[in-house]
Amino acid sequence: MLGSADPVAGFERAYRRKTTLFTVAFLGTSAFAVGALGYFVLMFPEEFPPGFIGYAVVEPVLLGLLLLYLRRQFRRVFDLARALAPRLKAAGVPRGSGPTFVFDNGLVIMWTPPGPQFYLVGSPAGGKALPSMEDLRILRRGLMRMRRLVRVDAKHGPDSLRHRLEEVRVQMMSKVSWLFVFAPRPAASVEPTRATWFATVFFARSRARFDAQRILQQIDPIARLLEDAVETARAEDTAGRTGT
Fold first, then answer.
1. What are the CA-CA distances from residue 227 to residues 35, 180, 199 (Å)?
2. Domain-by-domain residue ranges, the chain?
3. 117 FRET partner, CA 20 to 30 A, in 21, 96, 102, 200?
4. β-pair type (100-103, 147-152)
5. Higher-confidence residue: 231 or 52?
């Protein structure tokens, strides 16, 4: 499972395409909305309250400010990708997902506006996968049909995992965090290309979501936390099903 020779360059090309398409679509939709609203306000002013006319004037400014904010976020993602390069194995923008980075220890981070989501995927052989972006696309199939084995947060889960999650949450400067481990249902058919487990941790409202140095420091602790959570969850699941 080999990654790209230059994951950052490939990511920048893919992300620039998506952000350009988004910007063009945003501008086109905004221009139509502003034009249509302005036309109706000018042609039928008596149909609109006085305050609404003021909104029609302010709306283009609001849309312009929103676009500037979004473009700033796009630039910050580019900067983040470059800063994470020393540990990157692969990077891309999968369909239906946000910017996604795969590190050399198998840990994956998907960037989302609310906060970063880290996860590990079990390989078909049962161990930790070290995927490329294409491998990740294949391994992620069927994740929605998996069952939850364990949930860890401030009030749920084994004490050892809760304490370690809290330590990482503090480092990620997050308001709240959740950790989950999923596995295929016992009756599910075994497929040789599908993930055998999925472990993820989400840091909501993380002030470190663009802090590459802090993220790099937490890559290995988060990976170990998820691996230990998988081991604990699978052991508890086996004990529960066998009655031991």
1. 54, 11, 8
2. 7-80, 94-242
3. 21
4. unpaired
5. 231
